[in-house]
Amino acid sequence: MTVRLEADTVGMLLTDVSRLLRSAFDRRINAANLGVTPGEARALIQVAVNQRIKQADIAIRMGIEPMTLSTYLDRLEALGFVERIPDPSDRRAKNVVATPAADGVLLDIRTHVRALMDEVTAGHDAAELEILRCSLKVMRDNLHDLDRNPAPSAAPGATPAGEADPANAVQPADRTRP
């Protein structure tokens, strides 16, 4: 017997949307001829959002290898868009900051991202988008918590045999946040 999994679970949908959004972003940035690659644009966005961020943290946020990021930053630095400065708390680490020279390309990137997101979110009103934004923030926070506190090997609410215990089941309505 072959196990069939559902295609439209939240996890599958998030995975598909993430992949498709990245692909659409890459096409937009390539077509815009901004003088940066899509990878460089993503790195520059991370620097602009998180001023004075460590190189290692940028790589983690982007889900790429540190050497790949280093290549992006070398090019962005050569263009005058970023500067690497010593981290005052760790002399081995470098923090990255955006320079005023990056303002023009960042504004162009923002324009393209906003246009893309307008197309991606077409059909949703402002209230729906706010609910989605808040839900995604909660999911992101939950994932950060999982990274900091890995769950034990058995899932919560599961019996030793791996069968769900209905008495411990958490319903979606029970997972509210203040």
Folded structure, characterized:
There is one protein chain. It is globular and about 55 Å long. The chain has six helices and three strands; from the N terminus they run H-H-E-H-H-E-E-H-H. The longest helix is centred in the N-terminal third of the chain and has 23 residues, at 10-32. Helix 1 (10-32) crosses helix 5, helix 2 crosses helix 3 (55-62) and helix 2 packs across helix 4 (66-78). The chain has a single domain (10-149), classed as Winged helix-like DNA-binding domain superfamily/Winged helix DNA-binding domain (Arc Repressor Mutant, subunit A). With 178 residues, the chain is mainly alpha-helical. Helices cover 54% and strands 10% of the residues. The protein has a three-stranded antiparallel sheet with strand order 1-3-2. The model is unreliable at 159-178 (pLDDT under 50).
Task: Summarize the helix and strand pattern as letters.
Answer: HHEHHEEHH
Shape: globular
Strand order of the largest sheet: 1-3-2
If you average the pLDDT, what whole number results?
A: 88
Helix content: 40-55%
Quickly describe the structure.
This protein is mainly α. The chain is 54% helix and 10% strand. The chain has one domain: Arc Repressor Mutant, subunit A (Orthogonal Bundle).
Describe the secondary-structure layout.
Elements: H1 10-32, H2 38-49, E1 53-54, H3 55-62, H4 66-78, E2 82-87, E3 90-98, H5 103-120, H6 126-148
Antiparallel strand pairs: 1-3, 2-3
Helix pairs in contact: 1-5, 2-3, 2-4, 3-4
